[in-house]
Amino acid sequence: MSKRSTRQKRAIEQVLLAARGPLSAQQIQEKASEISPGLSLATVYRVVREGAEAGTLSTVCLDDKVTRYEDRHRHHHHHFLCEDCDEVFDITIPCEMLAHRVPEGYSVTRHEITLYGHCAECA
Amino acid sequence: MSKRSTRQKRAIEQVLLAARGPLSAQQIQEKASEISPGLSLATVYRVVREGAEAGTLSTVCLDDKVTRYEDRHRHHHHHFLCEDCDEVFDITIPCEMLAHRVPEGYSVTRHEITLYGHCAECA
DNA sequence: CTAACTGCAAAGCCTTTGCATACCA
DNA sequence: TGGTATGCAAAGGCTTTGCAGTTAG
With respect to CATH, is domain A7-71 assigned 1.10.10.10? Predict the structure, then answer.
């Protein structure tokens, strides 16, 4: 759990808050380095890991096998992965009915819906 | 593309055809080794990779970051990951409406719905 | 001041690859 | 027999960890 506020942590938080969707560790390092030069990948991994354990961040793993991280402060949403630019965007889909569609005896705690296709810029 | 039918490939295919859901490379090796003793992990990776490239297999990457593989011969379906036993099961959910819920300009080619929770055995 | 944090480089996992051998066809 | 497929071990990529130096409070 994070105990001190450092330049590096603030930079990472800021980047994640400004993101349109989940970002990979690499992307976070690139963007946060502009705010906190010299930021190491190791620190990015340490901070996102702490955030995930503390529940402030969630990790997303889609079919392209890249792990991405996003702030949890926002509303429940889903993801769209553009197969051209590999960028992930947040989207909203009605999903109330999902929990009722499982076999007898199963219980659902959460779900993930991901669409794959082409984003507006790449189409 | 696969050119020869070998003991190892037949074992892997057989395991994937019998599976209730997608399996990890490890799981495939364990189960297929019972049929073809000495089967190496490297071969499993080579065979599933060929299958994926040939389109007969699909790869699945859920939030637990484990890559799993499954035969594509079956109907369109979705996945349920049990958070207790880490097993993945195939499920069916109506999903016709999904493609219409994306922002202006986006096009959807495919989707993935995953439920997380507890399976009948673990509940 | 001092315990938490960071950067670096080394270590760890999972997956891929190079090479000599085994084995389908 | 000839070339594909396999097993082993080494190499690769992403992520984690150990350690010594740095810094927040």
Answer: yes
Query: Which residues have C-beta within 8 Å of that of residue B66, sequence separation ≥ 6?
Result: B24, B86
Structure tokens, B26: 């490890």
Task: Outline which parts of chain A fall under CATH 1.10.10.10.
Answer: 7-71
Q: How far is the CA of B24 from the C1' of D17 (A)?
A: 26
Nucleotides of D under 7 A from a protein CB: 4-10, 14-18, 23-25
Cβ distance A33 to A8 under 8 Å?
no
Provide the residue-wise pLDDT of chain A in tens; the chain has 123 residues: 578 999 999 999 999 999 999 999 999 999 999 999 999 999 999 999 999 999 999 999 999 999 999 999 888 999 999 999 999 999 998 888 776 778 889 999 999 999 999 999 998
